[in-house]
Amino acid sequence: MDYFYSFYILVTEFNLFIIKNNPMSERRCKLCQSPYSGRRDKIFCSSGCKSDYHHQLRALSNKVASSTDKILHRNRSILFELLGDHENQRRIDRDALAKKNFRFEYMTGCYENEQGKRYYLVYDFAWIEFKTGEVLLLRRKKMEQ
Fold first, then answer.
1. Overall domain count for the chain
2. Each residue of 120-134: b (16+ CB within 10 Å) or e?
3. pLDDT of residue 39
4. Is residue 115 a part of any domain in this protein?
5. Residue 39, domain member (yes or no)
6. Mean pLDDT for each 10-residue chunk of the chain (145 residues)?
7. Residues facing 121 on adjacent strands
8. What residues make up the domain containing 69?
9. Residue 50 lies in a domain
10. What is the distance of C-alpha 3 from the center of its chain?
């Protein structure tokens, strides 16, 4: 029995020696910077750190996306206010849109028709800018027919 116990102690000490002298054991957790060992592709010391890291990443991403989404919804509200429920298109001065704090650089898409006219899209609405300073507002369903 002493032989097996001595062998167990020897193997345990050898494993500890390998772990301490292995450069892979010097890796640090991506979130809390504590040292850890494990698989080569492991980057977190625990599932809690992994979860916290991804939660923080998602929160930051949502913050940026939320501010952009607010601007897009504001643009859509302005277009809806100007077109109403029943109008499908309307010409308006570009300055009138700007006075309502319409942000021309925020859109959900861009479309170029066969004649080379570029439509800027915000959800179910679109607009075309003309050199005269006018803007044609469109409800997208009518534009695509």
1. 1
2. bbbeebbbbbeeeee
3. 86
4. yes
5. yes
6. 64 63 69 86 89 88 88 95 89 93 94 91 94 91 51
7. 109, 126
8. 25-144
9. yes
10. 61
Please report which helix (H) or strand (E) contains residue 111, including its range.
strand 109-112
Whether the Cβ atoms of residue 117 and residue 71 lie closer than 8 Å to each other: no
Q: Whole-structure pTM over 0.85, yes or no? A: no
pLDDT at 142: 46
Angle at 16 between CA 15 and CA 21, to 5 degrees: 100
Give residue 100's pLDDT: 94
- Which residue in this structure is represented by tokens 């991403």? 61
Distance (Å) of CA 28 to CA 18, 22, 25, 32, 36: 18, 13, 8, 8, 6
Q: 91 is written with which tokens?
A: 């010409």
Write out the two tokens for 2. 């002493």
DSSP structure string for 74-110: HHHHHHHHHHTTT-SEEEEEHHHHHHTT--TT--SEE
**20 in any annotated domain:** no
The DSSP 8-state label assigned to residue 35 in this structure reads: B
Q: Which amino acid is at 120?
A: Y
From CA 142, how far away is CA 132, in angstroms rounded?
24
Positive or negative torsion for Cα 94, 95, 98, 103: positive
**Contacts (Cβ under 8 Å, ≥6 apart) of 34:** 28, 45
